[in-house]
Design goal:
Length: 223
């Protein structure tokens, strides 16, 4: 269950598939869960496992501050596909325990239950009444250059699009000739300014060093 042996190709494949739609092992920020899984790897994942490699390079940048990351370390086997499923099941069981399908012999709710219901209703109404804050966004056009004309541009684009962050949305793309049979990837993205920066994007994209030679900003516009 979980990822299995992360020092084997099979274990790395499970990790790569697990991270296809996730930025981190648990939650939306780096945590001790990422540290546990990172330390279970003997080396960086191969380039063809782009989701796992993108995650590995990102967590590697936190090594100097890994002890301060949130969360509590658990056994490696408790992370991964099985861990997600088990947690969901446990949550569902807890929810089921809270529901009395057959009612109670006592028709009157306890004072504690009434108070809790009123507090939840008040919190819901307060949240609903709040107007959403204006979110500053930017539209960025990136030029991603390969090493040579033999670089697999389909795989290069797949690696770029595998980068997922809160506040990042990939858009359209095209290949643009630059000379000598070499083409660069020109790809559009929309970012939330407070969450995603150009330097962060460059760090993530150039981490795929088997495919990417460099990245430049071709256009930057506030939305």
């Amino acid at each position: 269950m979980g990822f299995g042996d992360l020092k084997t190709p099979a274990g790395l494949k499970v990790l790569n598939d697990f991270l296809a739609d996730k930025s981190y092992i648990e939650g939306f920020v780096p945590s001790q869960a990422d540290v546990v899984v990172f330390e279970a790897l003997s080396a960086a994942p191969p380039a063809d496992l782009c989701h796992a490699l993108r995650w590995y390079n990102h967590i590697k940048s936190y090594q100097s501050e890994k002890l301060s990351l949130p969360g509590v370390k658990k056994a490696l086997g408790q992370y991964g596909p099985a861990g997600v499923e088990d947690t969901t099941s446990a949550d569902s069981k807890d929810d089921d325990d809270d529901i009395d399908l057959f009612g109670s012999d006592d028709d009157e709710e306890s004072e504690e239950a009434k108070r809790l219901k009123e507090e939840r209703l008040a919190a819901y109404n307060a949240k609903k009444a709040k107007k959403p804050a204006l979110i500053a966004k930017s539209s960025i056009l990136l030029d991603v250059k390969p090493w040579d004309d033999e670089t697999d541009m389909t795989k290069l684009e797949e690696c770029v699009r595998s980068i997922q962050m809160d506040g990042l949305l990939w858009g359209s793309s095209k290949l643009v000739p630059v000379g000598y049979g070499i083409k660069k990837l020109q790809i559009q993205c929309v970012v939330e300014d407070d969450k995603v920066g150009v330097d962060q994007l460059e760090e993530e994209i150039t981490a795929f060093e088997d495919y990417v030679q460099s990245m430049d900003v071709a256009a930057f516009n506030k939305i």
